[in-house]
Amino acid sequence: MTDIQWEGFSSDALSAAGVIYFLALISHLFEWASQRNSTVGKGVTSDDETRRTAMARIIGTTLTAFGLVAHLASLVGRGMAADPNRVPWGNMYEFAVAGTFFMVLIYLVTMKKFRLVWMAPWLLIFVTAVLMIAAIWLYKPISPLTEALDSYWLVIHVVSAVIATAAFSIGGILVALWLVKNRAEKKAAANGVELTGYLARIPDVKTLDRISYRMHAFGFPVWTFAVLITGPIWAHEAWSRYWNWDPKEVWAFITWVVYAAYLHARTTAGMRGKVAAILALIGMATLWWSFIGVNFFSTTSVHSYAEGAAELTTIESLTR
């Protein structure tokens, strides 16, 4: 296949992944509707599920797995379309595609252990939305890596950042659900009623808190490795300086500080619960700002290569 054909294959595979994820979402929404009369303690096991509900869950999970395969094919095709072939995370579009891929992968790997199937609709909505944004607004034609990016550190640094971003994003979704359910449980208890509907079918707040903490605890050392170890090493190799006070570097470090505060809060009795949850959501906000906001609104970042040709200007300014 030619490079143009590989690029077309990558785009088609990503479109297929988006469609499959959407069908998986529809299947899981059908599962929700079939369990609309569930109450607290029901719906999280298969004892009370009807055959139709169980089938919708199986179909949704299977479609998600097929979507992941198409997602992977898109990443492979993107890398093969470059001349020379390269890893497919050289700009914002490719980072978004890779990040959502790892989100789905982490979900499928941990789904059985943590019983996360109830989370599928939220995950699929998030992933589908990001893929749509990437395809419509972030897409860039395939191009060779610039000199600063053409390094083995690209693989080490960016893949660790992508994995951490995926784990933090899943953890953020769990934290948001924790806040919603915690408030609903308190309101139901005050009124002397039981929860019904979807909130009754997701795990209790202690379980949500534990799983979200594990996701963040997994992502934090990976993010540390990306931001505080491989990033400075790569910066020194590319620009002869470990730290440049670049907006991307600053916001990545702010993200690290916020998540460090969250993990500390989780181990401090007086700061658990709502305070820790809010810190986790602030961390997710700074994470995605450092990914998207800096690239769109900063005019001084040496990481502007994520938007293409602007990197040539910043590289020249650094080498003068």
Automatic annotation (TrEMBL):
Q: How does it sit in the membrane?
A: Multi-pass membrane protein
Q: Do you know which InterPro entries this protein is assigned to?
A: Cyt_c_assembly, Cyt_c_biogenesis_CcsA, Cyt_c_biogenesis_CcsA/CcmC
Keywords, alphabetical: Cytochrome c-type biogenesis, Membrane, Transmembrane, Transmembrane helix
Q: What is its main location?
A: membrane
**Record keyword Transmembrane helix present:** yes
- Compartment annotation: Membrane
Domain (Cytochrome c assembly protein) spans 89-298
Q: Where are the transmembrane segments?
A: 13-33, 54-72, 92-109, 116-139, 151-180, 217-235, 250-265, 277-297
Q: Which NCBIfam families match?
A: cytochr_II_ccsB
What protein am I looking at? C-type cytochrome biogenesis protein CcsB
Instruction: Report the gene name.
Output: ccsB
